[in-house]
């Protein structure tokens, strides 16, 4: 639905699309050539690609492998976590074990506390 501003009543009223868009309905208006809108220009900054140095052990592979400290640390952690030593993920490192035991202990304390609260609610108070 299209609207136009009426100067006499100073309010909006319904209108056709041509009137609302400001296009006159005269035959002379259709003789004028319509200029095309300018093309959209997409401007962007070129992406700087990081240089990858092939590692000494990756010479035989098809893909290039980064040769930096962070990638080597990632590969060593991956090797430790994927080793078949029979341990679960939370048993691999001391920090993980500590957090696991702490959260399990807090869950047990919360469970016991909730049982205590239920016992207090279930037992009637003593009459003195």
From TrEMBL:
<dbReference type="InterPro" id="IPR036539">
    <property type="entry name" value="Cyt_c_oxidase_su7a_sf"/>
</dbReference>
<feature type="transmembrane region" description="Helical">
    <location>
        <begin position="99"/>
        <end position="118"/>
    </location>
</feature>
<comment type="similarity">
    <text>Belongs to the cytochrome c oxidase VIIa family.</text>
</comment>
<dbReference type="GO" id="GO:0006123">
    <property type="term" value="P:mitochondrial electron transport, cytochrome c to oxygen"/>
</dbReference>
<keyword id="KW-0999">Mitochondrion inner membrane</keyword>
<dbReference type="Pfam" id="PF02238">
    <property type="entry name" value="COX7a"/>
</dbReference>
<dbReference type="GO" id="GO:0045277">
    <property type="term" value="C:respiratory chain complex IV"/>
</dbReference>
<keyword id="KW-0812">Transmembrane</keyword>
<dbReference type="InterPro" id="IPR039297">
    <property type="entry name" value="COX7a"/>
</dbReference>
<keyword id="KW-0472">Membrane</keyword>
<keyword id="KW-0496">Mitochondrion</keyword>
<protein>
    <submittedName>
        <fullName>Uncharacterized protein</fullName>
    </submittedName>
</protein>
<keyword id="KW-1133">Transmembrane helix</keyword>
<dbReference type="GO" id="GO:0005743">
    <property type="term" value="C:mitochondrial inner membrane"/>
</dbReference>
